[in-house]
Amino acid sequence: MASKAYDKSFREEVYENVDSGEEIKLCMQCGVCGITCPLRDEMTYGPRQIWSLIRAGKREEVMNCSDIMLCTSCYACKVRCPRGVKVIDVMHGLARYALRQGIVPRKETSKFGKVFWDCIAKTGRIDETDVPMRYTMTAGPIHGIFNALEMMDIGRALLSHKRMKFKVAPGVPPAKKIKGIRGLKKMLKKAAAMSPGKES
Amino acid sequence: MAKKYACYLCKGCGIGEALDFDNLQEVASESGMGEAKAHEALCSPEGLALIKADVDGGANALLIGACSARVKTDEFTFGKEVLVERASLREQTVYCTEAGEEAAADRQMLAADYLRISATKLQKMELPVPFQLEQPAEKAILVVGGGVAGLNAALAAAKAGAKVYLVEKEDALGGFLGKMAKLGPQSPPYQELQDTGLEDLVGQVQGNGNIEVFIGNTVAKTEGAPGNFTVSLSGGQSLRAGAVIQATGWTPYPPEKLADELAYGSSPNIITNVQMEERAKAGDLGGLNAVAFIQCAGSRDANHLPYCSAVCCLVSLKQAMYVKQANPEAAVYVIYKDIRTPGQSEEVYRQAQREGVIFIRRGEEYPKISDHGGKFTVETADVTLNDTVAIEELDLVVLATGMKPNNPKVVEPPLVALGMDQEEAKRLTAEAKAQSDDWSVLNLAYRQGKNLPTLKYAYPDSHFICFPYETRRTGIYAAGTVRRPMRVTQAIEDATGAALKAIQATTAAAAGFAVHPRSGDESFPEFFMQRCTQCKRCTEECPFGAINEDEKANPLPNPTRCRRCGVCMGACPERIISFKNYSVDMIGAMIKSIEVPEEDEEKPRVIVLACENDALPAIDMAAKAGAKWSPFIRFLPLRCLGSVNLVWIADALSSGIDGILLFGCKRGDDYQCHFIKGSELANVRMSKISETLDRLVLESDRVRVEEIGFGEVDKIPGIIAEFMETIESVGPNPYKGF
User: Fold this and answer.
1) B376 touches chain A (CB under 8 A)
2) How far is B286 from chain A (nearest CA, A)?
3) What interface predicted TM-score (ipTM) does this complex get?
4) Preferred mutation among A1, A3, A4, A6 to probe B, highest tally of B CBs within 10 A
5) What is the reported pTM?
């Protein structure tokens, strides 16, 4: 007996609920996306095969696969796709859909995304030293300190050049807010209301 | 015709510096061409005016020593009444030999020989007189088959003004188009299924005053030749037609043969694409929740149809859309080897994907189909998942089977059977006959058989790339799916092409010239019947079945069927077949006119009998590109290598020529010969020449056949150099000086 049976329910779920989910209908399995991806060595399947798995109805494989959270939005695949499939949009859509379902396919990405988003949402800008420091500490106090110690040499150099402020405390705004922060917050609120799920 | 000779020599393009013109004028005069006129550039207005003045003064047989006969053809044509022969002093003399004083003597002898050869040719040839049929040529066109190709061919021909007879075996026009529910998308944006448009098409045909339709009829007998076919129908009518278009379409590959691989016949819900179309036409597509299409069912498979039928992918896309449009919730799977959607059809593929059809790429292996109480499971390799997958709960499985031409298969015995041991030849012939189909579409009253010769897979092909629509019977054209698998739009295009070809054929038959590939040639083979020995070689070897036979095996030529290749001329042991401007005697005399130096001069002579279709252009191109070869070579252009008569070999060797090369086209399964069998025949004939050479106490190394393709320009100097070495090692021809 075959190890996998085709099941249409998952693909219909994806078409229905995932941002740009219907895009994958047009994939002709040429594999250009997979071979173009700079992270191909990190991926278990790559975009092409993820689409194939969705069509076959392999919910578990897709939703728990870290591939859908590895995308760095470099756009190489989307540029090259002969069928014009918005590969990145689907990848992010899948990641968001997984999070909405309470599935975290890749913890690191999820945590980094949260820190990154908080920084933007609160200040309207990215503080390039603050975000990594906060991300380092997401591993918890003990692991965070071990992680930080590993980075000690870089940290010392950055401090001596006054490139890094030494303060990480909850509630302390990481960087100076942009001027129109109130307007930005309004925009984000409106965008979140338009999104199919709540933002992650 | 009383000939008045005139000879012109061109000094342009470096010929003037390379050759001694006083000597050439002397040679021309000795060869009976009178006083040759030299000019700095014959193709210039002044040069042409010089010739024109003489033509106006009555000169009607012109020898022009200048560039190759393949160039400046318009300039050096002076009307139908003037014979022109061109000696290639540029490409085959000056360009291809070493320059300078040292080589001057050999180069001069080469040029002189070309003048002698051309002078002899001019003296031996006559103006062709076009052949005329006894009755005025008929221009009506018979179209056999009333499907999409036949209907369109009839319409195209009728619109061009020809009378058309359309014969259809069924009781209604339409063929397979009539069995279709819808057509796939045919026009931009290639997303919507379309109506077949059959009613409109049939209406146009029936409303056209030039078209006479015979439904419920087949062709009982086709006699005669282009311009004069007499066609008897099964219904008793007799028609006279000038050309025939066979548009008999296709038959589905028999699905019973797929019973083992794809469980065909085990359930009424495992059907072919043809049956699916019937169901769609009957509106019987309700209640389908899951359907699988299996592509390449018996196609691209050595055990079934080895070829791709080119339409099954599109048909399945269309039928998948039928299912989706009847029930958008249905799960539709297409299990394919490769989706082949050339050109705009890719848009159809996309549309099917948009509608949610799922495509699964299988490997070479067929999927396994199992029946679970009326619901099927298809188990297949899924190449893109690198796994084996199962598709369950299917209501219907559609096998995308391919197309077979609706044309009887003809297998010819191999040519080596010619002249071999009689028993063996009979056995090979019987074997070939056993593999051939016994039924017929046109029932030709031809000596070579009632069917169109076929190449691979029963398609009545002549030369797929160069000569579409041409069958190997002149004036009979194939259009539509009987020619190759194709879809409706292509069949319409094909039909138009074939209709125009058929009109050309009737026009040519009326005017008395060859239609193809020697288009416009007014010469034709004439038989000196008093000396015929009824050996049947000409009737058997003609690649186009042009020659019939009477009860006593006398050849009955049909000049309007003839393509003027001269294969009959090469076949005839009595040498009784000649054209007005091409004959055994003429080429023999040309060979004998070459001056052969004494043995002690150590200047061998080699002649190259070269096919003028492919080899000669290649030679010219090589010379033009700067290739050099031995000045001891003399090229003689031939209509086809198949016209080489063995007596020329004897003529050449007995007059002291040291070696003979034959340059012909590629032969074999993917032959390039314009006359199909010419190159192959020459090869078979030459393989039997050792006997003759033994009789003359000569080495068989002196004669060699080479295949030269049009593009194989770079091969030529090497082949010549190697042959010259062989000739040197064999030594001079002992017949020199006799």
Assistant:
1) no
2) 20
3) 0.82
4) A6
5) 0.89
